[in-house]
Protein backbone atom coordinates (compact mmCIF):
# COMPACT_ATOMS: atom_id res chain seq x y z
CA UNK A 1 0.00 0.00 0.00
CA UNK A 2 1.15 3.49 -0.77
CA UNK A 3 0.32 6.75 0.91
CA UNK A 4 -0.97 9.12 -1.75
CA UNK A 5 -0.80 12.89 -2.06
CA UNK A 6 -3.98 14.63 -0.89
CA UNK A 7 -5.07 17.44 -3.22
CA UNK A 8 -6.14 20.58 -1.45
CA UNK A 9 -8.62 23.34 -2.17
CA UNK A 10 -8.78 24.97 -4.72
CA UNK A 11 -7.32 22.22 -6.94
CA UNK A 12 -9.65 21.81 -9.97
CA UNK A 13 -9.93 18.01 -9.55
CA UNK A 14 -11.99 18.70 -6.41
CA UNK A 15 -14.61 20.56 -8.49
CA UNK A 16 -15.04 17.83 -11.12
CA UNK A 17 -17.89 15.37 -11.31
CA UNK A 18 -16.19 11.99 -10.94
CA UNK A 19 -16.67 9.14 -13.43
CA UNK A 20 -18.61 6.00 -12.68
CA UNK A 21 -16.42 2.93 -12.06
CA UNK A 22 -17.10 0.22 -14.66
CA UNK A 23 -15.79 -2.68 -12.59
CA UNK A 24 -14.36 -3.28 -9.11
CA UNK A 25 -11.19 -5.02 -10.27
CA UNK A 26 -7.74 -5.45 -8.71
CA UNK A 27 -6.68 -2.02 -9.92
CA UNK A 28 -9.70 -0.46 -8.20
CA UNK A 29 -9.02 -2.44 -5.01
CA UNK A 30 -5.39 -1.25 -5.03
CA UNK A 31 -6.66 2.33 -5.23
CA UNK A 32 -9.09 1.69 -2.33
CA UNK A 33 -6.22 0.21 -0.27
CA UNK A 34 -4.02 3.23 -0.95
CA UNK A 35 -6.87 5.61 -0.17
CA UNK A 36 -7.47 3.89 3.18
CA UNK A 37 -3.80 4.02 4.09
CA UNK A 38 -3.68 7.71 3.13
CA UNK A 39 -6.79 8.46 5.19
CA UNK A 40 -5.38 6.71 8.28
CA UNK A 41 -2.00 8.44 7.85
CA UNK A 42 -3.76 11.82 7.75
CA UNK A 43 -6.06 10.97 10.69
CA UNK A 44 -9.16 11.41 8.54
CA UNK A 45 -12.42 9.49 8.85
CA UNK A 46 -13.27 9.62 5.15
CA UNK A 47 -11.56 10.11 1.80
CA UNK A 48 -12.89 10.31 -1.74
CA UNK A 49 -10.90 9.36 -4.85
CA UNK A 50 -10.93 12.92 -6.29
CA UNK A 51 -9.02 14.01 -3.17
CA UNK A 52 -6.08 11.88 -4.31
CA UNK A 53 -6.42 13.21 -7.86
CA UNK A 54 -8.44 10.28 -9.26
CA UNK A 55 -11.77 11.41 -10.69
CA UNK A 56 -13.64 8.17 -10.03
CA UNK A 57 -16.71 7.42 -7.91
CA UNK A 58 -15.09 5.70 -4.93
CA UNK A 59 -14.82 6.58 -1.23
CA UNK A 60 -13.42 5.06 1.93
CA UNK A 61 -14.79 5.77 5.41
CA UNK A 62 -13.84 4.64 8.89
CA UNK A 63 -15.58 6.33 11.80
CA UNK A 64 -14.24 3.97 14.49
CA UNK A 65 -12.63 5.82 17.40
CA UNK A 66 -8.95 5.43 18.19
CA UNK A 67 -9.69 2.97 21.00
CA UNK A 68 -11.86 0.81 18.72
CA UNK A 69 -10.97 -1.76 16.07
CA UNK A 70 -10.64 -0.27 12.58
CA UNK A 71 -13.88 -0.65 10.61
CA UNK A 72 -13.17 0.41 7.04
CA UNK A 73 -16.06 0.92 4.67
CA UNK A 74 -15.41 0.96 0.91
CA UNK A 75 -18.03 2.37 -1.42
CA UNK A 76 -17.82 2.32 -5.20
CA UNK A 77 -20.45 4.13 -7.30
CA UNK A 78 -22.38 5.09 -4.14
CA UNK A 79 -25.82 6.63 -4.51
CA UNK A 80 -28.16 8.09 -1.94
CA UNK A 81 -31.51 6.38 -2.55
CA UNK A 82 -33.34 7.90 0.43
CA UNK A 83 -32.76 10.66 2.94
CA UNK A 84 -34.65 11.66 6.06
CA UNK A 85 -36.64 14.88 6.22
CA UNK A 86 -35.09 15.51 9.60
CA UNK A 87 -31.77 17.32 9.46
CA UNK A 88 -28.87 17.69 11.85
CA UNK A 89 -26.07 20.18 12.21
CA UNK A 90 -22.58 18.78 12.69
CA UNK A 91 -19.11 20.27 12.60
CA UNK A 92 -17.17 19.01 9.58
CA UNK A 93 -13.59 19.11 8.44
CA UNK A 94 -11.91 17.89 5.26
CA UNK A 95 -8.38 16.73 4.43
CA UNK A 96 -8.54 18.99 1.36
CA UNK A 97 -9.11 22.02 3.63
CA UNK A 98 -6.61 21.18 6.37
CA UNK A 99 -7.21 22.39 9.92
CA UNK A 100 -10.52 24.10 9.03
CA UNK A 101 -13.91 23.20 10.49
CA UNK A 102 -17.44 24.50 10.08
CA UNK A 103 -20.97 23.48 10.96
CA UNK A 104 -23.01 21.98 8.12
CA UNK A 105 -26.69 21.00 8.09
CA UNK A 106 -27.60 17.76 6.32
CA UNK A 107 -30.28 15.05 6.45
CA UNK A 108 -29.90 13.09 9.70
CA UNK A 109 -30.10 9.70 7.96
CA UNK A 110 -29.49 8.41 4.43
CA UNK A 111 -29.83 5.09 2.68
CA UNK A 112 -26.94 4.39 0.32
CA UNK A 113 -26.63 1.87 -2.48
CA UNK A 114 -23.06 1.01 -3.51
CA UNK A 115 -20.61 -1.68 -4.58
CA UNK A 116 -18.30 -2.96 -1.85
CA UNK A 117 -14.60 -3.96 -2.00
CA UNK A 118 -15.54 -7.16 -3.84
CA UNK A 119 -17.94 -5.49 -6.24
CA UNK A 120 -20.99 -6.81 -4.42
CA UNK A 121 -24.13 -4.62 -4.49
CA UNK A 122 -24.92 -3.40 -0.96
CA UNK A 123 -27.30 -1.09 0.80
CA UNK A 124 -26.63 0.71 4.05
CA UNK A 125 -28.73 2.88 6.33
CA UNK A 126 -26.35 5.52 7.66
CA UNK A 127 -27.30 7.48 10.77
CA UNK A 128 -25.58 9.81 13.22
CA UNK A 129 -21.95 10.53 12.38
CA UNK A 130 -21.84 7.88 9.63
CA UNK A 131 -24.60 9.80 7.82
CA UNK A 132 -22.50 12.96 8.03
CA UNK A 133 -19.30 11.27 6.86
CA UNK A 134 -21.03 9.43 3.99
CA UNK A 135 -22.80 12.54 2.68
CA UNK A 136 -19.59 14.56 2.94
CA UNK A 137 -17.63 11.92 0.95
CA UNK A 138 -20.37 11.37 -1.64
CA UNK A 139 -20.47 15.13 -2.23
CA UNK A 140 -16.80 14.98 -3.24
CA UNK A 141 -17.81 12.72 -6.16
CA UNK A 142 -19.96 15.54 -7.52
CA UNK A 143 -17.31 18.20 -7.02
CA UNK A 144 -18.97 19.56 -3.87
CA UNK A 145 -17.00 20.53 -0.77
CA UNK A 146 -18.58 21.07 2.64
CA UNK A 147 -17.90 24.79 2.36
CA UNK A 148 -20.28 24.84 -0.63
CA UNK A 149 -23.10 24.21 1.88
CA UNK A 150 -22.20 27.32 3.87
CA UNK A 151 -23.42 30.87 3.36
CA UNK A 152 -21.13 32.95 1.15
CA UNK A 153 -19.89 34.89 4.15
CA UNK A 154 -19.04 31.78 6.17
CA UNK A 155 -17.39 30.17 3.15
CA UNK A 156 -15.21 33.24 2.64
CA UNK A 157 -14.23 33.12 6.32
CA UNK A 158 -13.07 29.50 6.04
CA UNK A 159 -11.14 30.17 2.81
CA UNK A 160 -9.47 33.26 4.30
CA UNK A 161 -8.46 31.32 7.40
CA UNK A 162 -7.07 28.53 5.21
CA UNK A 163 -5.03 31.00 3.15
CA UNK A 164 -3.75 32.64 6.31
CA UNK A 165 -2.67 29.30 7.82
CA UNK A 166 -0.86 28.46 4.56
CA UNK A 167 0.99 31.81 4.60
CA UNK A 168 2.03 31.25 8.21
CA UNK A 169 3.23 27.75 7.35
CA UNK A 170 5.33 29.12 4.47
CA UNK A 171 6.77 31.92 6.60
CA UNK A 172 7.59 29.64 9.53
NI1 LIG B 1 -13.68 16.06 2.48
Report on this model:
This protein is α+β, with helices and mostly antiparallel strands and 172 residues long. Helices cover 29% and strands 30% of the residues. It is built from 3 helices and 7 strands. It has helices spanning 26-41, 128-141, 152-171, and strands at residues 46-48, 58-61, 73-83, 87-94, 97-107, 109-115, 121-127. The strands form 2 sheets. Strands 1-2-3-6-7 form a 5-stranded antiparallel beta sheet. The longest helix has 20 residues, at 152-171. It is globular and about 45 Å long. The chain starts with 25 loop residues before the first helix and ends with a helix. Bound molecules: nickel (II) ion. Nickel (II) ion (NI) is lined by residues 94, 96, 136, 140.
Amino acid sequence: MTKLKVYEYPHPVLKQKADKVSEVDDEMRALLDDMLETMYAENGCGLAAPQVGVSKRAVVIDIAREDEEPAPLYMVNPEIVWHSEETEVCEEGCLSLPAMRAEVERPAAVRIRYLDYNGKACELLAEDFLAVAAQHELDHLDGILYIDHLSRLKRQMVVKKLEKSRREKNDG
